[in-house]
Amino acid sequence: MSGLTILLRIAAIIFVVEGMIMLALSRFAQLSPQVTTAIDVLMLVLISSPFIFVLVIKPYVAARTQEINNAREIAERANRTKDEFLAHMSHELRTPLNAVIGFAQLLQYNPGEPLSPAQVDYTNSIIYSGKHLLEIINGMLDLAAIEADRVHISMEDIDARVLFEECISLMRPAAEARKIKLSNLASNGLNPQLHTDVVRLKQALINLLSNAIKYNVVGGAVTLDAKLMGDGYFRISVIDTGKGIAHEYYNNIFEPFDRLGVESTRSIEGTGIGLTVTKKLVEKMKGRIGFESQEGAGSTFWVEIPLAMEQKQLLWNEDLSVGVEAIDSDHKILIELLNKVSDPVLSHTEVSEVLTELLNYTVGHFKREEAVMAACGYPKLAEHMRIHHLLAAKATLLAEEWSESEKPEVVEQLLDFLRAWLVKHIMEEDKAIGRYILGHEREVDGALQNIEKTA
Predict the structure, then answer these.
(1) 50 pLDDT higher than 50
(2) Considering only CA atoms, which of 206, 239, 211, 199 is closest in space to residue 223?
(3) CA atoms within 13 A on the CB side of 85
């Protein structure tokens, strides 16, 4: 339908409405001139508004939208060009700088032609400044390479204890230079196998340890610690006794070139790129990163890396997210319970207890999910409930068989069924729920609160 046709139809409707209004008003006695004038003005506004919209407002909005789209496209193209340029410049930037540092070191360590004290100072300045510049270039190139998607991630199963010792050994000279006690508690009693890129994880941990030493107080302490998480991840923490981070900088922690208020402190060198690179690398390895800090008491930065597990075990990741907090939270707990039942060190009694908890939580999850679907008007609610009913029936049957026989193969059969069902159900059924929530958040919250009250 053309714009002129729409305009004519709108005008016709307005004229009809005006006629109806005038007809209704004609039943009254003589109208005052003020009322007649007000009606005329109202009719003029109604009649002219579609013309103003079509002839003035709509073209203006369309032109501005096109300008914004063009500007965004130009900015994105320029950003891609910048990233590609920096990524390709890696060799050209690093090679001559390494040569400068190398020749300065050769001058210092040439016993045949010893340098004077002044010359030693000059070459020290060259080496120090060169290494600092190389660190900046490496950070910028790493960031550009990540954003240009030129970083290759090679995932494998690794021994975390070996990695921890290597990182501590590499950072010990920097810690000793500032009289900082560097401790490794991450290997105490734990021997986790991680599924990650060993080179990139080492880079991430070195970045965190370097920051913990750099921003610490002289004579302070930095501790590398670790613990198993309940959802198939292993948390590695870098704890320092520095000045901490002011709350006002929390939102900028992982932003590039933001040094969190120390920009004017010349004694602490850096560009503010390290944490940004670390975050992007960790996320590319399917890991997670975060921090805790108390101003005046120090900070803890942590990364969580997937454990190397059997294929039967599940790991929560964003690909499984439905986009509804209550449902996603339930799915995470179900995955945690499934993995817990798979623990080979559990006794028969403990397996029974965890299985009971798993099945009870599954039933509660079904109630919450169905309440969410009903509240937001999900069109396939009845079909979804039928799937839930069939699952509960089969899971209960297998659980009863286990209770009677306590055969390990029955538990494995049940767990295999639940794992396969959960992932398939999330990806094929639950994913569709998210888009129906928009506009019904209040109803959904109310439905969930009612479920909690009656639980």
Answers:
(1) yes
(2) 239
(3) 6
Please state which CATH number belongs to domain 318-454: 1.20.120.50
Beta-sheet pairing, 181-184 with 221-228: parallel
Assigned token pair, 380 = 């396939």
**241/122 Cα distance (integer angstroms):** 35
Strand locations in 255-386, DSSP E? 288-294, 298-306
Rounded (10°) angle between helices 160-177 and 198-214: 30
Mean pLDDT of 111-122: 83
Name the DSSP class of 439: T
pLDDT for 345-366, tens place per residue? 566 677 778 888 888 888 888 8
Structural domain boundaries of the chain? 3-74, 90-147, 156-306, 318-454
In this structure, whether the domain defined by 156-306 belongs to CATH 3.30.565.10 is answered with yes
pTM over 0.85: no
* C-alpha span between 126 and 120 (Å, rounded): 10
Which of 298, 301, 308 shows the shortest CA–CA distance to 160? 308
Kindly report, residue by residue over 424-450, the tens digit of the pLDDT.
777 777 777 877 777 778 888 888 888
Angle between helices 408-428 and 348-375 (to 10 degrees): 20
Residue 46 above 70 pLDDT?
Answer: no
Provide the token pair at 149. 């998607």
pLDDT digits (tens, 9 = 90+) for 205-263: 999 999 899 888 889 999 999 888 866 788 999 999 988 888 888 887 877 665 555 54
Secondary element (H or E) of residue 96: helix 90-108
Instruction: Copy the structure tokens of residue 13.
Output: 């409707």
Strand partners, 294: 298
Q: Are 229 and 316 in contact (CB under 8 A)?
A: no
Residue that the structure tokens 């704890």 belong to: 239
3-class SS of residue 263 = coil
- What sign does the dihedral 236-240-246-247 (CA atoms) show? positive
Q: Do the domains spanning 156-306 and 318-454 agree at the CATH topology level?
A: no
- Kindly report the number of other CB atoms within 10 A of residue 131's CB atom: 13
Q: Is residue 11 within 8 Å of residue 49, measured between CB atoms?
A: no
Q: Residue 158 has what DSSP assignment?
A: E
